[in-house]
Write a structure and sequence with these properties.
Elements (H helix, E strand, L loop, with lengths): L2 H12 L5 E12 L9 E17 L4 E6 L5 E4 L13 H14 L7 E7 L9 H17 L5 H16 L6 H8 L2 E5 L7 E4 L9 E7 L8 H17 L10 H6 L1 H8 L1 H25 L3 H19 L12 H13 L4 E4 L7 E7 L3 H12 L4 E3 L11
Parallel strand pairs: 3-5
Antiparallel strand pairs: 1-2, 2-5, 2-6, 3-4, 6-7, 8-10, 8-11, 9-10
Helix pairs in contact: 2-3, 2-4, 3-4, 3-5, 4-5, 6-9, 8-9, 9-10, 11-12
C-alpha cells in the first residue's frame, strides 16, 4: 500500500486527514538464537520491509486501530491494566505500550491510526516487534516524549511479556527500534551494548532468502516458555537468574547434578546458549574482516546447534507434522553444499533463513517451489548500519 493509499484508507475509515506518518522495520536474526533472554550476545539486522501508519489525535479516551487485512479494534485508555482475555492480541500490545509510556510520565491521548505492513505475520521477520515499535514511535509523536530507541524497545518487550503473554527477550524490539546491522550484548539489559556492524551484505555474492515452513508459530507460546523455564531451573541450582551469570566451567563441573535436577534437554539447551554466544563473537569478527565464507559456516553451525541442542525445530511430541524440519532438509538439499541455512527467531514454526549464491537464486527458487509450493520464498534485504557504537 502506497503512502497515498494509506492516507486514503485513514480518510475513508475516520473521515478526516491524518496528521502523523510513522514506520518501523521488521528484523532478521543473523546469530544468537534464544540467547537474548539469557542476557547473551546477538547479531541481527533490520530489514527493508516495514509497518507503516497514518494517524491523528481523536479527542477521545481511546485508541482506534484500522489495520489492513485485520478487524478494527479499540483500546480504552481509562484502564491500562493487563487483561487476560486480551492476551495474544494486538490490543494487548497497544494497551501495554500505553501503560509503559504512562509509567514514564507520558500518558497517551486518544488517537486513530490506519496501519499497513509488508512484515507479514508468521514470516519470521518479527511483525509483532515491528508493530510494537511503530506504536512506541507514535507515542513519541503524540506525547512529545522523545523516548530513545532503546527505551521504546524496552516498552515493547514489557507489553509483549506482561500484556501479550509471550516471554520474549529484547532482541526483536531492539533491532526494529535501533535499525541497521547490530551486535548486541545483553549482559546489562538496562544498558545493553549496541554496536553497528559495518558490512556490505549486498556485495557478498549471496542473496538472503526467507522460506515459509508452513507451520504457524502463533500458538507456540508454551514451547518458547519451556526454554526459559528449563534454563531458569539450571540457573536456580547456582542461585542465579540467567545463564550469563553462570560460568561455563561451573556448569560442566556440576553436570551430573544438573541432569538430575533439570533433565537432559535443559542441559543441552544450556550448552547451546554457551556455544551460541561464542559463535556470535566469531560471526561479528568474520564480517568485520570480510571473511564471508567463515560467516556462512557459523550460520550453518548455529542452525545445527538450534536443532540438536536447543531443540526448537520440532514442537514436543509432534511426529506427523514437522514442517520446519522438512523445510530445513529441502533447503539444504537445494543449496547443494553452497551458502548456508538455519531456522530463525523463536523456532518450532515460522521461517527458514537461507544464503543462496546470487547466480543460483532463480534455479533455487524454482526447484524449491516445486517441493513446498509457490509464494513461500522471498528475498530479504538488510538495512544499512549507522556509524559507530551506541
Amino acid at each position: 500500500m502506497s503512502s497515498k493509499d494509506l492516507t486514503d484508507a485513514f480518510l475513508k475509515r475516520f473521515g478526516r486527514e491524518p496528521v502523523y506518518s510513522v514506520s518501523a522495520p521488521g528484523r532478521t536474526e543473523l546469530g544468537g538464537n534464544h540467547t537474548d533472554h539469557q542476557h547473551g550476545l546477538v547479531l541481527a539486522a533490520a530489514v527493508t520491509l516495514e509497518t507503516r501508519a497514518a494517524a491523528a489525535p481523536n479527542g477521545l479516551s481511546c485508541i482506534r486501530i484500522h489495520s489492513e487485512g485485520f478487524e478494527d479494534f479499540s483500546v480504552d485508555l481509562s484502564d491500562l491494566s493487563a487483561r487476560k482475555e486480551e492476551q495474544g492480541t494486538s490490543a494487548a500490545l497497544v494497551r501495554g505500550i500505553a501503560a509503559g509510556f504512562a509509567e514514564k510520565g507520558h500518558p497517551f491521548c486518544g488517537f486513530d491510526a490506519a496501519i499497513t505492513s509488508s512484515v507479514l505475520p508468521g514470516s519470521g521477520l518479527s511483525s509483532s516487534a515491528s508493530f510494537e515499535v511503530l506504536i512506541g514511535r507514535m507515542g513519541n509523536e503524540l506525547t512529545g516524549a522523545r523516548l530513545t530507541p532503546v527505551e521504546i524497545a524496552k516498552i515493547g518487550q514489557f507489553a509483549e511479556n506482561k500484556y501479550y503473554g509471550k516471554p520474549s527477550g529484547l532482541m526483536d524490539q531492539m533491532v526494529c527500534s535501533v535499525g541497521g546491522v547490530l551486535a548486541i550484548d545483553f549482559e546489562n539489559t538496562e544498558d545493553p551494548v549496541i554496536t553497528p556492524v559495518d558490512h556490505d551484505f549486498s556485495a557478498s555474492g549471496y542473496q538472503l532468502m526467507i522460506i515459509d515452513s508452513g507451520a504457524d508459530h502463533q500458538d507456540l507460546t508454551s514451547e518458547y516458555a519451556a526454554i526459559t523455564e528449563e534454563l531458569s531451573l539450571i540457573c536456580s541450582f547456582f542461585r542465579k537468574k540467567v545463564l550469563r551469570e553462570v560460568s561455563e566451567e561451573e556448569f560442566y563441573e556440576n553436570l551430573d547434578k544438573l541432569r538430575k535436577l533439570a533433565g537432559d534437554r535443559a542441559v543441552l539447551r544450556a550448552i547451546h546458549v554457551y556455544e551460541e554466544n561464542r559463535r556470535v563473537l566469531r560471526q561479528v569478527s568474520a564480517l568485520q574482516c570480510g571473511n564471508f565464507e567463515e560467516y556462512l559456516s557459523l550460520v550453518n553451525a548455529s542452525g545445527a546447534s538450534s536443532w540438536q541442542y536447543l531443540q526448537n525445530v520440532i514442537p514436543a511430541g509432534n511426529t506427523a507434522h514437522q514442517e520446519m524440519a522438512v523445510t530445513l532438509a529441502l533447503v539444504s538439499k537445494e543449496l547443494h553444499g553452497a551458502g548456508a541455512c538455519r531456522l530463525q527467531g523463536g523456532g518450532f514454526g515460522g521461517t527458514v533463513q537461507a544464503y543462496v549464491p546470487k547466480a543460483d537464486v532463480v534455479t533455487f527458487t524454482k526447484n524449491l517451489e516445486a517441493l513446498i509450493g509457490k509464494e513461500k520464498i522471498r528475498p530479504v534485504f538488510l538495512q544499512k548500519s549507522g556509524s559507530g557504537p551506541m
